[in-house]
Structures are given as C-alpha cells and as structure tokens.
Amino acid sequence: MNQGSDPPADPSRPAADSPDPYVRLGIDHDAGFEAVQVARQTRLEEVGDDPMARSRIEAAYDAVLMDRLKERQQGRVSSAARSASQREQASPPPNRPLYPALPSLPSLPVARLGANASRLPTLTLATGREFWLPLVSLGLLTVLLLLPNAAAEVLLSLAAITTVLNLQRRNGRFLAAVGWTLALLVVGLLLGSLLVGALPSSLPLGLPIAPVQLQSLPAMLLLLLGALLIA
Known about the structure:
Radius of gyration: 49 Å
Number of strands: 0
Number of helices: 9
Largest sheet: none
Shape: rod-shaped
Distance between the termini: 119 Å
Strand content: under 5%
C-alpha cells in the first residue's frame, strides 16, 4: 500500500480548479440567487483558511454574478428565471383578493314602521302613579302660571317635559310622546293667541295676569289633559 499517494477524489464535491465557475461552486446553470449564495458559503467553509482556494471560490462567485448581469443587460431571460416561470405555471398560486377582507360590522336593528307607529293614540284615563304625578305637577304649574309676574315660558317648558315623560311611560314610545306634546303645545298657544286677540284691550280681565300668561293658559291645560288621557 502506497502511503504517499493522494486520497481518491470525492465525485460529489465540486472541482475547485475547474475553469467553469458553476462547476467550481458546484451549482447548475439554472440555480437561483439563493442557491448561489449557499454554494459560495459552503465552498468557503470547506476550504477553511486556504487563501488560494478561497480566492478561486470568490472569483467563481463573481463570474456567476457577472454572467447573470450580462444576461439581463442583453435582454435575455436566464435559465434560472425560465425554470422559476415553469414552476409557477405548473403550480399556480391560489387566487388572493386584491385587498384584505374588512371585518364584518355587527348588524343594527332595523326600525319597523308599522301601523302602530302612525296610528292615532288611544284616549284612556291614566290610573295610579301615571294619573297622580302629572295631575299634581301640572296642576301646580298651572297655579304658578296665574300668579303675578310669572315666567310663562319657563313654566310651559317644565309642563312640556312632564308631559313627555308621562306619555313615554304610558306608551313606551319617546318620539311619539315628543310629537304629541309639541302638537298640544302649539295648539294651546294658538288658542291662547285667539283668546287674547278676541278680548278688547280696554276691558279689564279681573285677574292680575299679563297677556302672555293668559295666552299660555290653554296650552297648559291641554298638556295636562294630554298627560292624563293619551295612551
């Protein structure tokens, strides 16, 4: 056995002294950029600190990159690009939406406008708390309205709020309660204007109240009746 002879070459290892840079790196001509990077790092680890071997590997790596650059400059498609295109055609990616799907919003309840929303209210005399509360509060506001120098606008506002709350408690519909309260208030003020206009200015009223108080009196009474009767 000849101990001085070199060990047999490993056929699986690339030829470090080959003039072909692809063979020197141990890659195919259609290898991608990542494969070229991996082959370069693997060959450098194999040769260790040998400066000549490392320089040949770096030269082969630069030659491969220059070859790819020339192909791009000449408008040619490299074999690596052709193989990648073939792989994409063989297994097309799944269809993806152009924009990410937005989260679905919670569905809001739809208001149903049936016959109950437009029907006329039922006139029914309130009972219990729904009777005594507006009777006492609106009755007190009516008495205050007849006092000298009473603030009619403030008293009518309080009466309207009391009527809305009582109607909403009776029928459970806030918008309907507001609508009927405003209707009663407008009708009462119109009746009050007609009443004040029908009385002669020289005729004493017999009560120490101003015309604005007299004009507000029908509206106050209608609000009281509405709070007690509308259901």
